[in-house]
Every structure is written in C-alpha cells, then in structure tokens.
Amino acid sequence: MSSPRSRLSTPPPATTSAATMLSPARLGVRDTDFRNHDLDAALAALRSARSVAVVGHVRPDADAVGSVSAFMQVAEAVGARARGYIDHPGGVARNLSSIPRCADISWEGPIAADTDCVVVVDCGDLHRAGRYAEEIASGEWARIMIDHHEHNPGVQGVNLIAPRADSTTAVIWLLAQRAGVELTESLAHALYAGLVTDTGCFAWGGNEDATSRLLLAATLAESGIDTGRITADLMDRSTVAETQMLGRLLAGVEAVDTPLGRAAILMAPYAQLSTVPPFVAERAVTLLHALEDAAVCVVAKEQQPGTWNLSLRSEQIDVAALARRHGGGGHIHAAGLSMTGTEEDCWTLMKDYLLQ
Questions:
Q1: How many CA atoms lie within 13 A of 39 on its CB side?
Q2: pLDDT (tens digit, 9 = 90+) per residue, 166-200?
Q3: Of 132, 144, 183, which Cα lies nearest the Cα of 48?
C-alpha cells in the first residue's frame, strides 16, 4: 500500500563526482560526532578480528536488517568471518526478507564463542540489542557502535554515531568507502534498504542537506540495483488480507487536541496487534505521519500483554524530546519509547504527560 507522500523510488542518475562529493560532513557527520581517525580505528579493530558478530536492534526495521547485512559484507571484505544477530525470535518479516544475507542472521541463537569483535548497529543504546545487550557489555572482545540516533551514549570501544545522518547504513557506507570495499549489488542493496526507508522514500531525514541522500542513493544505484523493486518490496507490497488488516487498524485512529496541537493517536492492543504482521503496523505509522491536520501522531502498540511500544512522528515537533520524558529517544521527527501498564495507563501517559 503506497504512502500518499510523493516518492522518488529511482533516484536521478549519479554523476562521476557523486561519490567524492559525499564527504562525512555531507552525510550529516559533524566534527563533534567522529573523525576519519575514528573510522580508521574501527577498521583496525575489524582487520585484527577473526570472527565478527554484527548485532541489530529488537523489533528490527529495514535500517537494522540492512545495517547488519551491509556490515557483515564489509567485515568479510576486510578479511574477517562475520555473523549477524538480531533478537527477534519470529525471524525476518516478509517485507524485509528481500534484503541480502537475511539467511545469515541468527534471530535467537547465542553469539558464537569464537567472536573477538562485536559491532552494534542502529541501536539507540546498547539495551536496544535486547537479549544480547548484557553479553555484549561484559564480553572480552573489541566493540564498535555504529548508529544515527540522538543521545546514544555509545559503548566502551569505538563509536561512530552521527545523529544527523539519514540512516545507519549511510554511516556504514562511509566506513566501506574508507576501507576501499567494492560496492557490489548485494552491498548496495543492503545500504539502500536502510536509506530509502529511514528517509520515507527521501521525503524526510535527519540530515539538513537533503541533496546528500539523493546523491548517496544515486551512487548506490550505479551498482546496478533495481531501486524501484527494492522500494516496493520493503514498503508497498501487500495482500488483500493485509490491506484489510490495515484498514481495521486505521479505523481506530482518534484525533485529540493537546497543548502541542492536534494529535492523531492509534491504540493497538495486544489482542488486535497479535493478529497483524509487524510491517502492517509500521505502515499505519507511516500513513499517520502523512496526515495534514495533525501536528503529531502516536501509535501505541501493545507488543505483549501490559508492554507497550509508542512510535511518535511529527514534522513540526521534536518528538525525540517528548520520548526522552519517559526514557525513550530517537530522531527529531521520529522517535519512540516503551512503557508497561494497561491501555488506560497508556492513554494517561500520552494525554497528561507526554503531549503537554
């Protein structure tokens, strides 16, 4: 089901200078984030490793899966053995299964005993690695954190964190370029998956330089990937049954006037959410983001009975600041938080605390 936003599934043709124009600064990396010597430190850790574990976040999206896939390929290109790990016992969602190397990701198995370097990707903090977080923090191995979420405290090791980058895959692309890794179709596919989804098909992003995301997409497209098909697989393809589920889910949207302006709020209790594939709920978030008469939208998903995950979106309000009020975080225009309690507790949190 397509978003009502205008989409640029196939970027404009890349020029021969596109890659050289995309310096770290162009991709949203500030001097206070990291420098080239930090990229070199990450590469040194990789080159000295025999076995690398690449870990993404719980409830993975395309940037998480794409980042795990892309970094496995980068690690292998510099001579290490790489395995992927994401704490998601249900396995990869259907809409993400076209991302290369999904078959090489463990969705619930332990980190291999011979691992000597752990790379955490697209996790706003280490806790987002789920069941792997404690093991990563306490293990005897080199650690690298690669991310683009605001207020990430990093890990004890090398941190490549750029809150203004459009996606984590954009940061991984910088590392790949620094290492001189060949941009194969498989690597470009994984990188593009994170970029196109985390920018809403280039409609928004963390980087103030909007041209940069199109130039990066064009550079990736030069590898020969079918950007239109990748976008459709990730964001558009659906079945009649899934479309009906989405319709029933969206029927529960409520408009609530708050001190921040009108809020569009969708509550998805566990009894309803458990019958819906994860990507259907994510499409509901995307559609609410496109509402013209709402200053902010909140989708509250009860992942397990009494455990809620709230997704916040806005083009006008710093929703990361709102999320941090309750221990969450994210990007200025897209953020999230978790809470426990009843549906009434969730409503109370939103109306009396979060949206004030």
A1: 18
A2: 999 999 999 999 999 999 999 999 999 999 998 88
A3: 144
